[in-house]
Amino acid sequence: MSQRDKLLVKILLGMSDANIDFDSLCQLLRTLGFAERIRGSHHIFSKEGIEEILNLQPKQGKAKAYQVKQVRDLILKYKLGDKSVD
């Protein structure tokens, strides 16, 4: 299992939202096809075909728990990360 897959499982399980590395989360979103724009500490992710825009900020090197939940909800809603869909 790749690092990407391990992180995806960790996010989908939702048991450690406050313990997700921010840089790893950003990398996962990029590999899922999101475009990243940075303004200060804000990392803004968007993707064609997805109406929601993710606005993430790090907190001491970790992703904020509520933002990890937003990412999880988006992954589930659009079935991202499913190898048959990507």
Give an overview in words:
- The structure is a single chain.
- This protein is 41% helix and 26% strand.
- The chain has 86 residues and is an alpha+beta fold.
- It is globular and about 35 Å long.
- It has a single domain (3-78), classed as Metal Transport, Frataxin, Chain A (2-Layer Sandwich).
- It has a three-stranded antiparallel sheet, covered by helices on one side.
- β2 (42-47) and β3 (50-56) form a beta hairpin.
Which runs of at least 5 residues are low in confidence (pLDDT < 50)?
Answer: none
State the name of the first-level CATH class: Alpha Beta
**Backbone shape:** globular
By secondary-structure content and strand pairing, the structural class works out as alpha+beta
Secondary structure layout:
Blueprint: H1 3-13, H2 22-31, E1 35-39, E2 42-47, E3 50-56, E4 58-59, E5 62-63, H3 65-78
Antiparallel strand pairs: 1-2, 2-3, 4-5
List key phrases describing it.
86 residues, two-stranded antiparallel ribbon, globular, 41% helix, 3-stranded antiparallel sheet, single chain, 3 helices
Question: How would you sum up this structure in a few lines?
Answer:
This protein has 86 residues and is α+β, with helices and mostly antiparallel strands. It has helices at residues 3-13, 22-31, 65-78; strands at residues 35-39, 42-47, 50-56, 58-59, 62-63.
